[in-house]
C-alpha cells in the first residue's frame, strides 16, 4: 500500500471499534466524537502532506525492498543524508503542528524501525523475537500505520517492584502461555492519542528486578483487540469551543489514556520480548530505541521556538519590549532556542555508524537536549505569563466581538500599540493564553517534563553512562604535571 492519505487514515479509524471510555461513557463513534474530531483532522492533514508535491520528496522515499513510496521514518539511515531526510520529516510535521503534538506518527514509526534494525539484540535471546519485530516493522511500514505506546506501570506504589505490588496483575504481566499466544493482564500507561491510533506497542524502561519475569514484556496489538480497555483522561477541550477563542487548544488536544488489559491474547508472532529481565533491561540501550530522541529534539525545538515567538509578539503588541527586564527574558528564550538548535546540529554532524550499518546521531547532545527542555520549555511559558500579565486573562470572546454594541469599546480598550487593533490583540492574547494558561497549555508543560521518562532518573542514567565512557585525562595530567614540577624544582625556584 505505501503512504496513506488522510482519508485512508480516517477510513481505517471508522473500520474499528476499540473499547474507549471517556467521562463515564463508552465512545462508540470515534470520528464524530467532539473531543477527537479536530485532532483526527490534524493527523489526517499530516498523512495528506505525504502526497502533496510541496512535501512529498522531502518526507517520503522509495523503499528499496518493495519499490513503494514510504515515510522517511521507515528508512533505516545509512549515512548523513539519510539521517537528514528523517530530520526533514520531523521538521515538516512538527512545523505543521507547531511542535504541540508530541506523538505524531513519525515518533513510533522511527522507534519500530530502530527496533527492527537490531536483529542481533533479539537473536541472542530468541530468534523468534527478531523475526517477529522484523515482520511487524514491514507490516507497519507497508500499511503506513499510526501507533501509540505505553511504557510505564500504574503509579500505585513506586516503592515496590512489579512482583511486590499488592495485586499480582496491577502491572501488566503474562498470565499464561497458550498455543495461540500469550494471555496478558494488568495496566500500562500513558498512551497518548491511543483512541485514534491503529496499533499499540508495549515495552518498558529498564528497572526490572529478579522476580519480575512475567512483567518483562514487549509486544504489539491492534488498538481494538478484544479485552483491551482505553480509559481516557478528562478532555481539556470539548471540541465545541470556537477556534477564535481557543486557536490552539481547539486544534491540538492529544488525549491520553490508561490501557487496561483484561486477559488479552497476544499472538506469538506479535511477541518481541517475554520472560527475560536481562533482555528487558537492555532493550532500551541496545536496540537503538532511543533513536526517537532525534524526533523528540527536532519537535521540541519547534515547540520552544513557537513559545519564544509568542512571548516576543506579546511583548511587541503592548509596547513593553523596550524595557530592559522584558528584553532580558526574551533574550534568554532566544538563547535557549539557539542552544537546542546547536546541540541538534552537533548530534547530526557527529553521527556514527552502528555495527548493523545504521547511522545514528551522537546520543550525548540529544540526551543533553532531553535534560534542558524540561526546564527551558516551562521557563518559556513562565515568560509568556510574566510579560502577558493581566492581558492574558481579560480578552473578551468571539461572541463579544460579534456584538456591534461592544465593538467600539473592544477596539478602544483592548487594542495594542499603534497599528494593532482590538481584534488583533485579542486573538494574539487568546493564543498566548491557550499556550500558557489553559489546561491544554499546562498539559503541554507536563508533557515536556515527562514525555520520555522521569528527567531526574534520566539525568542520573546519563551521568552514569557518561562516566563509564569517559576518562579523567585532564585531571590526571594536572596531577602528574604537579608531581613532575615538584620533583624537578623541589625548592620551587623560578
Ligand atoms: C502529557 C504526558 C504524555 C505522556 N505520553 C506518554 C506516552 O505516549 N506513552 C508512554 O508510555 N508514556 C507517556 N507518558 C508517561 C511518561 O513516560 C511518564 O510520565 C514518565 O515516565 C514518568 O513516570 P510517572 O509519570 O509515572 O512518574 P513517577 O515515576 O511516578 O514519578 C513521580 C515522582 O517520583 C519520583 N520518583 C519515582 N520513582 C523514583 C525513583 N525510583 N527514584 C527517584 N525518584 C523517583 C520522580 O522523580 C517524580 O518526581 C506521558 C506523560 C505525560 C505527562
Which key terms come to mind for this protein?
494 residues; EC 1.14.14.8; globular; six-stranded mixed beta sheet; binds flavin-adenine dinucleotide; Butyryl-CoA Dehydrogenase, subunit A, domain 2; alpha+beta; AcylCoA_DH/oxidase_NM_dom_sf; Butyryl-CoA Dehydrogenase, subunit A, domain 3; 14 strands; HpaB_Deino-type; single chain; four-stranded mixed beta sheet; HpaB/PvcC/4-BUDH_N
Written account of the structure:
The chain has 494 residues and is α+β, with helices and mostly antiparallel strands. The chain has 3 domains: 6-285, Beta Barrel (Butyryl-CoA Dehydrogenase, subunit A, domain 2); 289-453, Butyryl-CoA Dehydrogenase, subunit A, domain 3 (Up-down Bundle), CATH 1.20.140; 457-494, no CATH class. 49% of the residues lie in helices and 14% in strands. It contains 18 helices and 14 strands. The strands form 4 sheets. Strands 2-1-10-11-7-6 form a 6-stranded mixed β-sheet, with no helix packed on it. The chain has a 4-stranded mixed β-sheet with strand order 5-8-9-12. Helix 10 (292-317) runs antiparallel to helix 11 and helix 15 (422-436) crosses helix 16 (439-450). It starts with 5 loop residues before the first helix and ends in a 6-residue tail after the last helix. The model has no long low-confidence stretch (mean pLDDT 95). The protein binds flavin-adenine dinucleotide. Flavin-adenine dinucleotide binds at residues 103, 149-152, 155, 158, 190-192, 256, 443, 446-447, 450-451, 453-454, 456-457.
Amino acid at each position: 500500500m505505501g503512504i496513506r492519505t488522510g482519508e485512508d487514515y480516517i477510513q481505517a479509524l471508522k473500520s474499528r471499534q476499540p473499547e474507549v471510555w471517556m467521562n463515564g461513557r463508552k465512545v462508540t463513534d470515534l470520528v464524530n466524537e467532539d473531543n477527537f474530531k479536530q485532532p483526527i483532522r490534524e493527523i489526517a492533514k499530516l498523512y495528506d502532506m505525504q502526497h502533496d508535491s510541496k512535501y512529498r520528496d522531502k518526507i517520503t522515499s522509495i523503499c528499496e525492498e518493495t519499490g513503494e513510496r514510504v515515510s522517511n521514518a521507515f528508512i533505516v539511515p545509512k549515512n548523513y543524508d539519510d539521517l537528514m531526510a528523517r530530520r526533514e520529516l520531523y521538521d515538516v510535521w512538527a512545523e505543521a503542528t507547531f511542535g504541540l503534538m508530541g506523538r505524531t506518527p513519525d515518533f513510533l514509526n522511527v522507534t519500530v524501525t530502530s527496533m527492527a534494525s537490531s536483529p542481533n539484540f533479539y537473536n541472542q535471546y530468541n530468534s523468534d523475537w527478531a523475526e517477529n519485530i522484523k515482520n511487524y516493522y514491514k507490516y507497519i511500514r507497508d500499511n503506513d500505520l499510526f501507533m501509540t505506546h505505553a511504557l510505564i506501570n500504574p503509579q500505585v506504589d513506586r516503592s515496590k517492584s512489579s512482583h511486590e505490588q499488592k495485586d499480582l496483575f496491577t502491572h501488566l504481566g503474562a498470565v499464561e502461555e497458550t498455543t495461540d499466544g500469550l494471555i496478558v493482564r494488568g495496566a500500562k500507561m500513558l498512551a497518548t492519542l491511543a483512541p485514534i491510533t491503529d496499533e499499540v506497542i508495549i515495552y518498558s524502561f529498564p528497572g526490572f528486578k529478579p522476580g519480575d519475569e512475567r512483567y518483562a514484556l514487549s509486544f504489539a496489538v491492534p488498538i481494538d483487540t478484544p479485552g483491551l480497555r482505553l480509559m481516557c483522561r478528562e478532555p481539556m477541550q470539548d471540541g465545541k469551543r470556537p477556534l477564535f477563542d481557543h486557536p490552539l487548544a481547539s486544534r491540538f488536544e492529544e488525549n491520553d489514556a490508561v490501557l487496561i488489559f483484561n486477559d488479552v491474547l497476544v499472538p506469538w508472532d506479535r511477541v518481541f520480548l517475554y520472560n527475560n529481565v536481562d533482555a528487558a533491561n537492555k532493550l532500551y540501550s541496545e536496540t537503538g530505541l532511543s533513536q526517537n530522541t532525534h524526533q523528540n529534539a527536532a519537535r521540541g525545538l519547534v515547540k520552544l521556538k513557537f513559545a519564544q515567538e509568542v512571548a516576543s509578539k506579546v511583548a511587541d503588541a503592548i509596547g513593553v519590549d523596550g524595557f530592559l527586564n522584558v528584553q532580558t527574558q526574551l533574550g534568554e528564550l532566544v538563547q535557549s532556542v539557539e542552544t537546542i538548535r546547536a546541540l541538534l546540529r552537533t548530534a547530526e554532524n557527529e553521527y556514527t555508524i552502528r555495527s548493523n550499518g545504521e547511522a545514528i546521531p551522537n546520543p550525548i547532545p540529544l540526551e543533553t537536549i532531553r535534560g534542558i527542555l524540561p526546564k527551558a520549555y516551562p521557563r518559556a511559558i513562565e515568560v509568556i505569563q510574566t510579560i502577558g500579565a493581566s492581558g492574558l486573562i481579560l480578552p473578551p470572546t468571539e461572541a463579544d466581538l460579534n456584538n456591534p454594541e461592544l465593538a467600539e469599546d473592544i477596539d478602544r480598550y483592548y487594542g495594542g500599540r499603534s497599528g494593532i487593533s482590538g481584534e488583533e490583540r485579542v486573538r494574539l492574547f487568546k493564543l498566548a493564553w491557550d499556550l500558557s494558561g489553559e489546561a491544554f497549555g499546562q498539559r503541554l508543560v507536563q508533557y515536556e517534563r515527562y514525555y520520555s521518562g522521569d528527567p531526574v532518573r534520566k539525568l542520573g542514567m546519563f551521568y552514569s553512562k557518561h562516566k563509564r565512557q569517559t576518562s579523567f585525562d585532564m585531571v590526571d595530567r594536572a596531577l602528574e604535571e604537579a608531581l613532575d614540577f615538584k620533583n624537578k624544582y623541589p625548592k620551587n625556584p623560578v
